[in-house]
Amino acid sequence: MDVQRRLLIQQLRGAEAHMGFDEAVADFPVWAMNQRGPNVTYTPWHIIEHIRITQWDILRYVEDPTGHVSPHWPVGYWPAPDEETDEAGFRHTVDQFRDDLRALEAIAADTSIDLFAVLEGTPGHTVFRELVVVGNHNSYHVGEFASLRQVMGSWPPGHA
């Protein structure tokens, strides 16, 4: 695998300069899923569900650029402000995020895919561009999620 593909996969995973998704959601307490931190209108689950929806949308767009219909922006990319989940729903969001992330990593690793070819029917978008967008978007919101955990006191004791 070439350097570009390895770097894309590392970026998708949040490796190197950022906390990864798995570390951010590890040992997340049930009591905090639907709580709002100070001065925010969303919950930790809302953030995780938002990055799941966005990542899913971009994966489907890469797989079928002419047939996939994206959710309406911005409401289709976030749960309703009053929407809540339970432990099974939170776990489902996390599992779906991981499944779609693995699919994106597989695309990045697939040497039969030209990362720089323009996707059919797009305004010049490439697989490379879409993977960078996902990695950047995920790292931003994973950092936001981790910060929200800090201010909410939802990290386990002893977390550095």
Main attributes of the structure:
globular; single chain; about 160 residues; Four Helix Bundle (Hemerythrin (Met), subunit A); mainly alpha
Lay out the secondary structure:
Layout: H1 3-13, H2 21-25, H3 44-63, H4 87-109, H5 127-152
Tell me what the structure shows.
- By secondary structure, this protein is mainly α.
- The chain has a single domain, classed as Four Helix Bundle (Hemerythrin (Met), subunit A).
- Helices cover 53% and strands 0% of the residues.
- It has 5 helices and no strands.
- α1 packs antiparallel against α4 (87-109) and α3 (44-63) packs parallel to α4 (87-109).
- The radius of gyration is 16 Å and the shape is globular.
- The chain starts with a helix and ends in an 8-residue tail after the last helix.
Please describe the biggest sheet, giving its number of strands, its sense, and whether it closes into a barrel: none
Count of helix runs? 5
CATH class: Mainly Alpha
The average pLDDT value, as a whole number, equals: 95
> The CATH topology, please?
Four Helix Bundle (Hemerythrin (Met), subunit A)
Q: How many domains in all? A: 1
Outline: globular
How much β-strand is present in the residues? under 5%
Separation, N- and C-terminal Cα atoms: 34 Å
Structural class: mainly alpha
Q: Which residue ranges are poorly predicted, with pLDDT under 50 across at least 5 consecutive positions? A: none
- Relevant CATH superfamily: dinb family like domain
CATH architecture: Up-down Bundle
Q: How would you concisely characterize the structure shown here?
A:
This protein has 160 residues and is mainly alpha-helical. Helix content is 53%, strand content 0%.
